[in-house]
């Protein structure tokens, strides 16, 4: 039944992920046995096909860290005010140690009890280090914990000497009385100290007494092994970062490489420009070991240009993203299913992996992208509402907790950052800027520590249903025509969704 992927794609007109189903196969293995190993670039193999998009409302160090812990990769966005700040995010991922908080929320000596109570309310932290400047990296002066201020919230009159305005310096435990960890020690040594002294938090300082990190008992209790984690040869987490095609981006590349970045993404809505080719050639000539993902492309001709110029992977998608309006405004783009299929088929001859970027609405879309030939799927919107995405939650209409999610080509992003303008071939001096994306919100999806394992398990179930024990087997059997596809009508699409119910609750995991 059905048809091969090649027959399906031979029909005229673009196909989206929604336009087809994959027909079921034989299940003769357990879902646990499904191997999702794949490649993100020519030389880098990872254990699951998940990549977070370089967008300023999606990927900074927290997202990149959790993506790598679960076997994917995060690409740090390029909209930082300075190249140094972007490189610092890469460093945070590279320096990640389990249980350590590298950027703990700090207070200054003149912060007040009210400030600490606000932090507890907002973030749930039960204590904070006090440093000279109020930031990590400056002299540690003491620690304040729940014990030092909790009573003030208990409506007790017996504490008139401590009020909401009392400076933290008066109630903190001063540094002389604290047990401290040493930044030069191996993590095991600090963990031992924390356990031996039965501490809730251990401040880690360097020789000068500057705060470097915080080791938290609660985080350690939560930590588990990450058997799929994406590591480099030094056993540090893998991380990527995006740059644009301007001459000034060469400084970003230099600093990113110095910080240990593994993958550079040349971020552009249309990868076939002379600027991109030049940047790609320059990076490959200057840093031959750095893997470069070029794009975005949607046709074989575009793919050829960038593969010939040295790309180690191609990012595919134009106008398919949830916040994109490129196809409407520019009249240019391509249906994502066809784009992924065509480019992957071409790139495969050269061993170049394809990143299916945009339009991943749910876990089944990842399985479809990989079935069409992509090696990994890149997600923006799907991850934008998670705890690890940048930005604070706000209360949206109807009491729903949301986070801001904006297109990199939205006026909002373009007005804020020259890098976003460059992605869409717009100059700072242009009086009229044409938006190619919108500003939106995404509902709270909770932490990636739960959401990513759900995505991974969902893809495993999908492959099991198709009858493929691994991504490698899936792609081979699709190519050989053993895995069958079927286009679906608009009615079939409606039938495939939830329907005919009075009301329903959608709990996914
Ligand atoms: P999803 O569907 O995952 O898409 O939210 C994320 C991808 O969309 C691209 N992107 C944009 N495309 N205008 C566009 O046409 C924009 O403003 C915009 N911002 C992001 C990008 O490729 C991203 O990975």
UniProtKB/TrEMBL annotation:
EC number(s) stated in the UniProt entry for this protein: 1.1.1.205
Keyword Phosphoprotein: no
SUPFAM superfamilies cross-referenced by the UniProt entry: CBS-domain pair, Inosine monophosphate dehydrogenase (IMPDH)
Matching Gene3D superfamilies: Aldolase class I
Regulation of its activity: Mycophenolic acid (MPA) is a non-competitive inhibitor that prevents formation of the closed enzyme conformation by binding to the same site as the amobile flap. In contrast, mizoribine monophosphate (MZP) is a competitive inhibitor that induces the closed conformation. MPA is a potent inhibitor of mammalian IMPDHs but a poor inhibitor of the bacterial enzymes. MZP is a more potent inhibitor of bacterial IMPDH.
Binding site for NAD(+): 267-269, 317-319
Catalytic center residues: 324 (thioimidate intermediate), 423 (proton acceptor)
One GO MF term attached to the UniProt entry: nucleotide binding
GO biological process, one term: GTP biosynthetic process
Record Pfam families: CBS (PF00571), IMPDH (PF00478)
Residues the record lists as binding IMP: 322, 357-359, 380-381, 405-409, 436
Protein family (similarity comment): Belongs to the IMPDH/GMPR family.
Keywords: CBS domain, Cytoplasm, GMP biosynthesis, Metal-binding, NAD, Oxidoreductase, Potassium, Purine biosynthesis
HAMAP family: IMPDH
Protein name in the entry: Inosine-5'-monophosphate dehydrogenase
Main location: cytoplasm
Quaternary structure and interacting proteins, as annotated: Homotetramer.
The reaction(s) this protein catalyses: IMP + NAD(+) + H2O = XMP + NADH + H(+)
UniProt subcellular location: Cytoplasm
Listed pathway(s): Purine metabolism; XMP biosynthesis via de novo pathway; XMP from IMP: step 1/1
Domain CBS: 100-159
Cofactor: K(+)
């Amino acid at each position: 039944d059905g048809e091969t992927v090649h027959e399906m794609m031979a029909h005229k007109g673009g196909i989206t992920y929604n336009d087809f189903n994959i027909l079921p196969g034989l299940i003769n293995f357990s879902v646990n046995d499904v191997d999702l190993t794949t490649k993100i670039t020519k030389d880098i193999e990872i254990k699951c096909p998940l990549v977070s998009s370089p967008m300023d409302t999606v990927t900074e160090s927290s997202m990149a860290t959790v993506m790598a812990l679960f076997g994917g990769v995060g690409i740090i966005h390029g909209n930082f005010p300075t190249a140094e700040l972007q490189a610092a995010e890469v460093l945070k991922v590279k320096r990640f140690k389990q249980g350590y908080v590298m950027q703990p929320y700090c207070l200054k000596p003149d912060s007040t009890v009210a400030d600490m109570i606000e932090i507890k309310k907002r973030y749930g932290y039960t204590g904070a280090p006090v440093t000279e400047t109020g930031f990590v990296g400056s002299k540690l002066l003491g620690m304040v914990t729940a014990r030092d201020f909790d009573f003030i919230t208990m409506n007790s009159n017996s504490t008139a000497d401590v009020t909401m305005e009392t400076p933290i310096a008066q109630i903190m435990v001063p540094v002389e009385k604290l047990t401290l960890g040493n930044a030069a020690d191996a993590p095991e040594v600090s963990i031992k100290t924390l356990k031996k002294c039965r501490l809730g938090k251990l401040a880690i300082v360097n020789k000068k007494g500057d705060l470097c990190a915080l080791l938290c008992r609660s985080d350690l209790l939560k930590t588990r092994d990450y058997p799929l984690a994406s590591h480099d040869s030094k056993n540090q987490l893998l991380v990527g970062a995006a740059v644009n095609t301007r001459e000034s981006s060469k400084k970003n590349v230099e600093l990113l490489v110095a910080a240990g970045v593994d993958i550079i993404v040349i971020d552009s809505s249309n990868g076939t420009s002379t600027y991109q080719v030049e940047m790609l050639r320059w990076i490959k000539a200057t840093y031959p070991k750095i893997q470069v993902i070029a794009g975005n492309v949607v046709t074989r001709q575009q793919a050829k240009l960038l593969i010939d110029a040295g790309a180690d992977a191609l990012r595919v998608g134009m106008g398919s993203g949830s916040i994109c309006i490129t196809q409407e405004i520019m009249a240019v783009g391509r249906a994502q299913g066809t784009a992924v299929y065509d480019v992957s088929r071409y790139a495969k001859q050269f061993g170049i992996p394809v990143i299916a970027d945009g339009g991943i609405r749910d876990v089944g879309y990842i399985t479809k992208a990989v079935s069409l030939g992509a090696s990994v799927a890149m997600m923006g919107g799907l991850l934008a509402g998670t705890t690890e995405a940048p930005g604070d939650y706000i209360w949206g209409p109807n009491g729903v907790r949301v986070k801001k999610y904006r297109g990199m080509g939205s006026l909002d992003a373009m007005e804020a950052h020259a890098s976003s303008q460059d992605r869409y071939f717009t100059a700072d001096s242009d009086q009229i800027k044409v938006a190619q994306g919108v500003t939106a919100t995404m509902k709270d999806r909770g932490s990636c520590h739960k959401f990513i394992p759900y995505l991974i398990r969902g893809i495993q179930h999908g492959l099991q249903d198709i009858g493929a024990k691994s991504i490698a087997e899936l792609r081979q059997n699709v190519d050989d025509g053993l895995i069958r596809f079927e286009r679906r009508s608009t009615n079939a699409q409606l039938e495939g969704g939830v329907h005919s119910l009075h009301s329903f609750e959608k709990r996914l995991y």
